[in-house]
Each structure stands twice: as C-alpha cells, then as structure tokens.
Amino acid sequence: MKTVLFVSLLTATTAAHAIDVSPYRPGQVLNAEQAKELQQRYKSREQQAWKTPGSVNDIKKHENSELILYGVQVLDKTVATIGPQVKDSSKRYSGNSLNCTSCHLQGDTQLPGTKYDALPFTNVANDYPQFRARSMSIVTTAARVNGCMLRSMGNGRELPLDSKEMQGILAYFDWLAEGTKKDQAMQGTGVPAFDLPDRKADVAAGKKVYRLNCLACHGEKAAGMKAPDYKETGMYAFPPLAGNDSFNDDAGMSRLIKAAQFIRVNMPFGTNSKSPVLTVEQAYDVAAYVLSLPRSRREGREKDFPDANFRPAD
Q: Distance between CA atoms of 223 and 246, rounded to whole angstroms?
C-alpha cells in the first residue's frame, strides 16, 4: 500500500505540469506514424521565456522543503549520496564518479540544472511525459531519470519509484516549474544547435584543442582530477570525461553532435552561450577527441533506437 501511495503521489505531482500525450499512455510503444504526430505536437508547443530559478533559501520556505532539498543533494552531490562507494550499499545506485551537475550545470543560484543552455532541469516538469526515440515509447520523468542512471551515471541501477531519492528529484523538478506556464516549452532548455562543419570531425585537431583548453581541469586523456579523498569517496575535483568513472558509451553525451553542442556553449568552465570561447569547428573536433577515448560499455545498447528512421545522426 505504501509503494502504491508513493507512486500515485509522484504521478499526481508530475501531472500538474506535464504535457498531454493522450490518447497514449506512459510506457506505450508507438509506431512511426504515432511517433511523428507526437513529436510534432511537442515541437509546436508555445515557448515561454526562461524562468530564473530561485535559491536554496526559497526552497527552505516551501512546505515540501525537506524532500526538495534532498533531491538537490542527490543531483548536486550524487557521488557522496548514491555513488558506488557510499557506506550504505543499498544506496549505491550510481555506477560512476560523476555528479548529475557534471552535465546539468549550476546557474547563478548554484542549484543543479539551472544554467541557461546547459541541459537545465528548469522546465522538465512541463516537458514530460514525452515520446523518446530510444525506446519508441512514451517516457515519464521518472523513467527519463532512470535512463540517466543506466547511461550517464555509468552502468548504474534504476532508482525505485517510491524511493526517497526519486521522490526528492521529482519534487525538485516540480518546485522549479512552479510559476511556469503549464505544458509549454521554455527558452534556454537543452543546448543550442548549430550547423555542423561539412567534414568529418578531426580527432588529432581535437586533441590539440583539448590540451589548450581542457587539460588543466580534466587532466591527461580526460581522466579527470581526483579529489584528495578519492580512495575513500570516489570524488573528483573536476569530472572525468573518459574511463569507467565517466558516462558510458550509451549516454546522450557519448554522441558527437550532442557533446559538441554542449561543449560549444559551456566549456571551458564558466563559458556561456552568449560568449562562447571555442569555435564550432573546435567544439566539433574536441568532442570527437574526447569520445575517441576508452569508456565503459553498456550491454544491450544495440537495442536502442529500434526504428532506424528515428535514430540520431550521431
């Protein structure tokens, strides 16, 4: 009964914002015609202006502050909270040494996933459920979170729907969406696209870009800079971009175009989309170099994107 109640509550809070995917239901596999219709519906939504997220102090005033703040902790201090070396082995959900904020960057208020054009969480509650080509199905917010647990967080484990961890993350997403326009898209979410260079990415050129712009933080061969207590905690001062402590070969960031788009407007650290440091060509090549380095593999990744017509170009 307790589990059913928790799941019902999660569904209810998310439904307060989520887009209408009817007549389909979460988990339903769509055919190509259905998928194209829903994709178009999603893309044609009205777009609201970027909502500047509040602060930790704003969360503390919320009636659900304890749970929201725990969600912030999971996203911001992932390694220390649910990482592979956490003392309570039942809490070891993440499979690597990245924090969620390694990709979903902090904005001015230092909350996870609140930076414009840096894969923010700000509008997630309005964006899900939605069709995902990876599974050709309708995916909920919780399922999307667990997709990251299995890929971006290495070969991790799914968070149970009724776990405090999942409840906290979804509560934080709902808090971010408070005051936004229901069901609408939002400026600054995702990462901005750009026209790709009309050539193959140059790994050798990317290595040179890496050494000039990235090595100081991410180390030789993108292995990251370990924190002094790494042996005890698995923590990094600067995250690894390759190797078993980083995202696996099935993560969104393991795709060349996605990685190049993210790097272009967010790296070196401190860069933003209004004043990028790297050119499109440099971002394209350095992404290729980073993705050429070894990383953990995900079993069964060949089952992703079962319809080739919906498979990303990269």
A: 8
Buried b (16+ CB within 10 A) or exposed e, 152-182: bbbbbeebbbbbbbbbbbbbbbbbbbeebbe
d(CA 249, CA 243): 10
2-186 CATH pick, 3.40.50.150, 3.40.50.620, 1.10.760.10, 3.30.70.20: 1.10.760.10
The conformation of residue 243, written as its DSSP 8-state character, comes to B
Give the C-alpha separation, 210 to 214, whole Å.
Answer: 5
Q: Which CATH superfamily is domain 203-310 in?
A: Cytochrome c-like domain (1.10.760.10)
By the 8 A CB rule, do 148 and 102 touch?
no
Residue intervals of the chain classified under CATH 1.10.760.10 are: 2-186, 203-310
Whether the model pTM is above 0.85:
yes
Nearest alpha carbon to residue 238 among 215, 213, 254, 206: 215
Q: Are 48 and 66 in contact (CB under 8 A)?
A: no
| pLDDT tens column, 41-90 | 999 999 999 999 999 999 999 999 999 999 999 999 999 999 999 999 99
**Degrees, nearest 5: CA angle 201-100-299:** 65
Q: Rounded to whole angstroms, how far apart are CA atoms 194 and 260? A: 9
Q: What is the pLDDT of residue 19?
A: 80
How many helical (H) and strand (E) elements, i.e. helices and strands, does the chain have?
A: 13, 6
Place of tokens 């439904």: 15
Q: Is 64 exposed, middle or buried (0-12, 13-18, 19+ CB in 10 A)?
A: middle
**In the structure encoding, which two tokens stand for residue 78, read together?**
């992932």
* CB 221 within 8 Å of CB 303: no
Contact 184, 45 (CB under 8 A): yes
